[in-house]
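Hi R.,

As promised on Friday, here is the backbone we talked about, encoded as structure tokens. Could you run it through your design pipeline when you get a chance and send me back a sequence?
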């Protein structure tokens, strides 16, 4: 078990170029992170390449056991990991935040270990016999984001290791310490060279990782524009890809809802991780007959949810992780205000205050084509659009180029299910939004990416299918 101080000491670089890391809530210096280059990436790729055959040669049960030991190591140092995550990313310790994310990291690791993937018998009759096997791809290059840096890293690492691959991971530049700490803890029990990390700019290290012929698979979670660049960079090697890209998820509230009953679910669908979640509810369409009541009950719930420094135990909303994201949210809210939209809650940040805190913001009576609706805000500001015709609202929900998730809210599940097939999204939730499960495949439609993570489909995605016939 590592304490916060011993964990920070273990990941503090003793040589090479570094950058200072500051707490987005307080501005305090946390420590220093390594700033590595393409040469360091090549070393890591060579280590992963050298370690992969022996790792793949282990039995499936042996790799499962290693993953369980890695999950145990995460659990043993969970409080230190959560404190570092809270300081660097900004998310509070409590609520669906830092402790939740660290716990989820061990849960998803165990799930990746325990998900059955038996040999599939395809044909077994007088015409012949054929089986489907899943073989390792080699080295997986993982590029993780800054919003859920530990858990999304695990979504990339754990299934890759289970299937016999080794991993080189490049964390986001603003949450390097969190992923470095996670990898350090896991490497207490994993064989040398199986899990490697390189910290550096996406423009150099990330680009080189996606272009490397040593990599059999790239897994990336992030924006659609960066995903497109990865597609181009990896094309020459025909590298396999799993891309979970940008989203601007729509929620549709039908006229039969109980506004008071759905307020809490709507809030957390939109504001989990202070809105910094790819599959968060980012534009809410409410039928005219219940519009005012839904807005009123949502605002009543939202105004009582505490925001502040993450290490204060009572807070469950935190700052935006970086100033660029704060400025984006501020720009979009100001655009909505300038258009005449009604500010129900928030929308009045103190630009001189310490920390990247943007208040919980609800914007009502907004045009369906305002910038706050059309652009992914990725922060604590929710536009609420009034509608009266179901065909019109489905058209609005589908008109963007992204399609990660969507939700339908109704007291009648059958009515909700009638709408679901008409929505262009990788996942459609009913009476909730954004919930994920380690056994339920997750991924996007349209320009929200391709490939699926989690469960059996997630294991297959980091393996090469091989048919054995005869």
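Update: got your reply. Pasting your designed sequence below so it's all in one thread:
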């Amino acid at each position: 078990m590592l304490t916060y101080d011993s964990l920070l000491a273990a990941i503090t670089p003793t040589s090479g170029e570094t950058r200072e890391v500051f707490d987005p809530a307080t501005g305090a210096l946390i420590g220093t992170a390594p700033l590595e280059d393409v040469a360091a990436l090549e070393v890591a790729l060579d280590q992963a390449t050298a370690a992969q055959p022996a790792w793949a040669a282990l039995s499936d049960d042996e790799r499962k056991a290693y993953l369980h030991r890695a999950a145990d190591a995460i659990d043993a140092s969970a409080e230190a990991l959560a404190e570092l995550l809270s300081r660097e990313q900004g998310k509070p310790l409590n609520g669906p935040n830092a402790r939740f994310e660290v716990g989820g990291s061990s849960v998803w690791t165990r799930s990746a270990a325990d998900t059955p993937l038996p040999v599939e018998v395809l044909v077994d009759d007088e015409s012949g016999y054929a089986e489907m096997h899943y073989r390792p791809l080699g080295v997986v290059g993982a590029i993780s984001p800054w919003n859920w840096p530990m858990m999304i890293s695990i979504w990339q690492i754990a299934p890759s290791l289970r299937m016999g691959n080794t991993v080189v991971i490049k964390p986001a530049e603003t949450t390097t310490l969190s992923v470095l700490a996670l990898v350090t803890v896991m490497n207490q029990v994993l064989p040398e060279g199986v899990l490697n990390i390189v910290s550096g700019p996406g423009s150099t290290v990330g680009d080189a990782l996606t272009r490397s012929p040593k990599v059999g698979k790239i897994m990336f979670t992030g924006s659609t524009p960066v995903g497109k660049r990865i597609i181009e960079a990896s094309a020459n090697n025909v590298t396999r890809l799993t891309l979970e890209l940008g989203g601007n998820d729509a929620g549709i509230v039908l006229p039969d809802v109980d506004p008071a009953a759905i307020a809490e679910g709507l809030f957390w669908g939109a504001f989990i991780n202070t809105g910094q979640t790819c599959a968060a509810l980012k534009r809410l369409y409410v039928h005219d007959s219940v519009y005012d009541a839904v807005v009123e009950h949502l605002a009543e719930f939202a105004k009582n949810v505490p925001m502040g420094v993450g290490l204060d135990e009572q807070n469950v909303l935190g700052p935006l992780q970086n100033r660029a994201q704060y400025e984006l949210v501020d720009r979009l809210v100001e655009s909505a205000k300038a258009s005449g939209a009604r500010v129900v809650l928030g929308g009045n940040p103190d630009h001189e205050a310490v920390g990247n805190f943007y208040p919980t913001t609800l914007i009502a009576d907004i045009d369906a084509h305002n910038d706050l609706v059309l652009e992914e805000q990725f922060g604590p500001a929710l536009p609420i659009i009034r509608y009266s015709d179901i065909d019109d609202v489905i058209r609005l929900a589908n008109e963007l180029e992204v399609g990660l998730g969507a939700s339908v809210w109704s007291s009648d599940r059958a009515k909700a299910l009638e709408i679901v097939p008409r929505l262009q999204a990788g996942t459609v939730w009913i009476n909730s939004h954004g919930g994920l499960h380690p056994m339920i495949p997750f991924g996007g439609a349209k320009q929200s990416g391709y490939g699926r993570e989690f469960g059996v489909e997630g294991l297959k995605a980091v393996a090469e299918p091989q048919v054995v016939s005869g």
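One thing I noticed while checking it: The chain has 16 helices and 20 strands.

Thanks again,
M.
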